[in-house]
Amino acid sequence: MTPVIQKGEETLKVRKLFRKTRFGFFALFGIVVLAISILSISSVSRELRDEYVSNSESIAKNIADSSVDILLNRNLATLQSLIDQFVQIESIRYIYITSDTGEYLAHTFIPGIPEEILASDPSATEPVEHSLPGLGDFVEVGSPILSGVAGTVHVGMDLERLGLKIQRAVGQQIYLLCIILVTGVLASIWLVNLASRPLTELLEYVVALARERESDRSTHGDVLVRDDEIGDMARLMRYVADDLAFAKDEGRGAGGDD
Amino acid sequence: MKTRIGGGGEGEVRQKRPGTLTRRSLVRSGLGALMAAPWAGKLGAIGARPYPGPHDRAAATLQDDEIVLGVSAAFSGPSRGLGTELYRGAMAYFTHVNENGGVNGRRIVMKLLDDGYQPDPCVANTIELIQDETVFLLFNYVGTPTVTRALPVLKKFRDQQVYLFFPFTGAEPQREPPYGEFAFNLRASYRQETAGLVDNFLNIGRRRVAVFYQNDAYGRSGWAGVREALARHSETIAGEATYMRGTQFGASMRRQVEILQARSPDAVICIGAYQACAAFARDAEDLGLHIPVANVSFVGSENLLALMREGRADADAHTRFLVNSQVVPSYEDTSLPAVREYHELMARYDPPPPEDVERITPGEPYTTFPQSFVSLEGFVNAKLITEIIRRMGDNPQRSGIQEAVFAVRNYDLGVGEQVRFGPNRRQGLQRVYYTVPEGERFVPLDDWEGRFPVS
Q1: Of B93, B144, B269, B455, which has the maximum CB count within 10 A?
Q2: Nearest CA of chain A to the CA of B244: how many Å?
Q3: Looking at residue A162, what is its pLDDT?
Q4: Minimal Cα–Cα distance from B361 to chain A, Å?
Q5: Min Cα separation A159/chain B (Å)
Q6: CB-CB: which of A74, A81, A108 is closest to B148?
Q7: Predicted confidence (pLDDT) per residue in A120-130, tens digit
Q8: Helix (H, G, I), strand (E, B), or coil: what is residue A107?
Q9: Regarding the domain with residue range A40-167, which homologous superfamily does it belong to in the CATH classification?
Q10: How far is A114 from chain B (nearest CA, A)?
């Protein structure tokens, strides 16, 4: 007698079903990680940059406040000494001080003041980005000295260093999210496998019923003792199968009588 | 560590690597003194006493048999020639004084700390020297970036009345408020040196003056002097280029020369140390910038010339555009009593560099000069401080230092110029001298137009 259903075929169908489920989990986790990463990159870079600019402004203001007496005393050596100390702070790449007439009174550039700086507005205080050949990219902030009548302090912060900081911060977050993603996917595979096992057993039992072989039925009969929906379905299947077999036997008997 | 010079003079040398003021180093130097110095017992006794209050310290009586001068200077690194030669000049005179009974019966001793011409170690050294109650005053510091940072320390410890004498820098911060009251200067200022150079260049028709400078407080001080001097002639700085402090002679200054060449200057004034300035003058000559290259006194003329001439067959032609301002007369001018004495004592004692300098910069032994402008300045500084201490009598106190200095009026130091101090005059000498290389020496320049004709 040819089996009604090939066992391997049905098992394959169940695996396909759960493979799709697993893929769904993976895709869902991926989308979540991607969305969080994008949000994280955006917010971290924005916040770090804001903090960077804010720090630069504080430093520029600090220098501006400290420079008043020094400038009024025309003590440019002390002024240079002052900015030399500030330029040692990490991320500050240059500082220069311009007079109210735009003259460069002190600076930290070597071998000279770049043309891009010379071409910029010496009294500007709003954050502005500079790309200086051979030096890199910078965000520059200014702070007026005595409301600008004594000059302006300009502080240049290294954008490359800022970029590295952002990369490091975002990298750490993405690293954590990736760990969560991998753990989540592995856990979902395990859970799906856990869920698929009784269904597989049920399927195998149903196949045995269809084959109408008592030995197969007893081999896969464990599913009948389950007290969950799978057990209910197995028992229901057996009842239907038995009922069908009984009807079949009765029909065969009636035909013999004829 | 300790250095003995000659038969009767001695100088204690306690050197530190830059930036290492630690409790351990203090203990070590204290132990070193206990182990090595003949007067170790006294030092040990002082060290064992409870730390005296500020007023006690200001009034503290010194050692009975010596006066200790605290020195923080460059004895290592690219500018070690300056600290070393300044020390040698002073040491020659102090050795002579000590051999002849000292000052009012006290020997003059220098406590040396190395700062490598770096500001932070200088600050640490200054604190150490001020807190060492055997130190009577601070003497012969080297450099603007170092002294500029040490001045606030003097202000902080103002109640201890420790003054800085004759720093080897012409910058303004130790000549003006708010720190001028803590220092006494002997040499002319950079403002005076650069004004003289600018005036002379403009007098011979070289109106476009550019500046090459060390990008720190020293360079800025000289830059400001050039700017002010040019402004008096309604001119501005024609161009400027900078270098980083500590740059060696082997470094290329091509970029700096190109920056200045683009501005077509008639002369360049360099505000730097000898290694970098020699590199700049070398590259300027090699790249065809054939204009006068002036240096101020801090450069260390002999060190600069030696570097530029080393291994060159065309040494004279290579150095023909150099002109250096000086704040002491030429050491060739033996018509001056102080110069004659300098020659005699340098020849007699030939003070070696402070001990262990070669160990600090391995592979680069320092070769001393028989005479140099820097050692002459050290000699003259020592001569005047000895006179000031002599005037303080048998029991000199820190509290009496200022009064003793202000009492120096029209004193003949033997350099052809009277020395005078006062409450509003904290710089003893005013004259600036101009020199050009002739062979291996710098000689006075009398004819600017003949030396640097405008084509």
Answers
A1: B144
A2: 7
A3: 82
A4: 25
A5: 23
A6: A81
A7: 999 999 999 88
A8: strand
A9: PAS domain (3.30.450.20)
A10: 10
Q: Please name the member of A77, A84, A111 whose beta carbon is closest to the beta carbon of B224.
A: A77
B190-326+433-451 has the same fold as B2-188+333-419: yes
Higher pLDDT, A255 or B74: B74
- DSSP of B364-394: -PPPP-SS-HHHHHHHHHHHHHHHHHHHT-S
Partners of A88 on chain B (C-beta within 8 Å) are none
B42 to each of A22, B105, B133, B190, B223, how far by Cα in Å?
86, 17, 12, 42, 48
Residue type, B179: Y
Token couple for B434:
């101009």
Residue A200's pLDDT band, with cuts at 50, 70 and 90, is: confident
The Cα–Cα gap between B219 and B280 comes to 15
Assign a CATH topology to domain B2-188+333-419.
Rossmann fold (3.40.50)
Measured between beta carbons, the chain B residues lying within 8 angstroms of A108 are 215
Distances (CA, A) of A66 to A26, A35, B62: 58, 46, 39
* Per-residue pLDDT tens digits for A173-190: 888 888 888 888 888 888
Homologous superfamily of the B190-326+433-451 domain (CATH): Response regulator (3.40.50.2300)
Q: Specify the amino acid at residue A37.
A: S
What residue of B is the nearest CA neighbor of A83? B216
In the block, which residue shows the tokens 């003056």? B209
Global confidence as pTM: 0.76
Identify the residue with better confidence: A156 or A226: A156
Predicted local distance difference test score (pLDDT) of residue B442: 94
Sorted by where each begins, the domain ranges of chain B are: 2-188+333-419, 190-326+433-451
Domain(s) labelled CATH 3.30.450.20 in chain A stretch across 40-167
Whether residues A73 and B176 touch (CB distance < 8 A) is answered with yes
Q: In which residue ranges of chain B is pLDDT below 70?
A: 1-63, 356-364
Comparison of pLDDT for A80 and A165, the residue scoring more: A80
